[in-house]
Input
Amino acid sequence: MYIVMNIPEERKLQPIAKEITVVEAKKELEKNRSKRVLLAVGGSFALVLAILGIFIPGIPCTPFALLSAALFAKSSEKLYNWLLGNKILGPRIKNYQRRKGISKSGKIKVIILMGTMVLISSLVIIKVFTIKVIILFAGLVGAIVVWFFVPEGKDYTEDNAEGDS
Output
């Protein structure tokens, strides 16, 4: 069975996707207030998860902070600038914006913290052997991903920021 689509010739020649500039995107968002509100709410939710990730092992902080920054950038310049100015999350976001990734010392700290929490969870808290093995294996995979696949960069300092401009 074939499906026949009657698409006019002039529509067939039009591009499916359209590239737009940042200025055009901002104008489009200014027109659509409800979209901006939804993006700001999503950014706020991602920010709450990022903050929880600072204190609760297993919830990733940086990815949620990056998501929050992206949503705030599209919805509210004020919220976006506030997030970048935050002394805890701001440098993480700025490092990723500059495509610097995580420094080698940062990777070591992440792996040590993750390994500590995995060992405590699997050896002290969890009693079922199969789940212990799964947690240990997941921790090993996480450490391998952080060490080999997460981009490596330099530590962020104000001196580096001046040199990038």
Remarks:
- Residues 101-165 form one domain.
- Residues 158-165 have pLDDT under 50 and may be disordered.
- The chain has nine helices and no strands.
- The chain has two domains: 22-97, 101-165.
